[in-house]
Amino acid sequence: MDRLRRYILAIFPLLLLLTLTTGCWGIKEIEDQTVLVGLGMDVAEPSKEEKELAMNGNAYPKKDRVTLTFQIIPFQKRPTSGKADKSSSDLYSNIQETGDSLFQMIRQMATRRSKPMMGHHVKVIVISEELAQRIEIDKLLKFVLRDNAIRPSCLVLMSKSKASEVLVSNNSGEIPSLELTGLTENGGKANNVLPPKNLTKLNGIINSGTSFTLQNLSSSKDEVAIAGSSIIQGKNRKWIGSLSVRETQALSWIHGSIHGGVLKTYDKDGNVLIYEVISAKSSTKSQVNGDNISFHVKIETKGRLMENWDMEESAGNEEFISEAEEAFKQELNTMMKDVIHKMRDVYQVDVGRFGDHLRMQHPKVWRKVEQDWDRVFSKSEVTYDVDLIIEDTGSSVK
Predict the structure, then answer these.
(1) What pLDDT digit, counting tens, does each position of 118-127 carry?
(2) pLDDT at residue 77 tops 50
(3) 3-class DSSP state for residue 137?
(4) 375-398 per-residue burial string, b: 16 or more CB within 10 A, e: under 16
(5) What distance in Å separates the CA atoms of residue 331 and residue 305, rounded to the nearest whole number?
């Protein structure tokens, strides 16, 4: 009897553990899901399919304010024919829904697709400039910031053209949303690519009330490319203008986010000069004199001379190198002048993070001006200087 009791006492914890250890009761097979990888937001323009469905009874109470483009990857089994190549149209589908509630529009898709959409794999949200000019960006993103199905690592981008046009690719084997995430990671090669902003980072910036930039995109029939940046004003949280590719590059120098890329200028005879960035750093010092606030930006960079089209000059000529360094400095100074003019005089917003430097270096002054910082910044003085060294010229062609 004692032996049986000991046996039961030994087995009972194991049986209890089995009852507490559950399997994947809520499992959802991938074959039963529609994977959502991208969202596009445009000014309302119902598609032909939406109009026809509404005419035939699919209409519901709403105001047409936003058109959402859902980029989905329908689950497909591997082809057995042995053909591996697929066109882009075989890899994804774009479906549109128009309304005034993003959450309602997503749920409305359940009336149009038998397999529910899974939002855990959304990579990018693209917002058109036209829509961001009409509706505050925090309103457009409020739902996705609250929805735990869409991960906070999702990137947010802007588009000069319609967002629906950006989410199209004619490149074989490419899914547009995944291609866009790849473009944003090329800052080490092209220094006009801004560090990507995901939902987490963007939520903090919006709540701080500061003005900021978002990476802009442009599209053609066959391609999508990085195209400067969009400016979102902190107070009204709407799009107010754009910076060109060159101005965005200058902004990256001010931010200190340059990790590579090229700088192009011309020598005194008009020949091309190309400088490849090896290292770069930026420091900004704020100064307060009574009610006057000023900033000084110091840029230090080292790199190599990668191209010079003057065949009479040798890359090893010290005088030529000195002249090339001065030409690159002049180019950087001109770029800095142009982007600071755009920020301070044209749009009157601080997207160069000068306010952050004032907050850290003069916290008492910052507390007095932070509520009206964009206006205060537009009256401040910004100076800058560049220390550029060509430390490598490669092998000579002579």
Answers:
(1) 778 899 999 9
(2) no
(3) helix
(4) ebbeebebebebebebeebeeeee
(5) 15
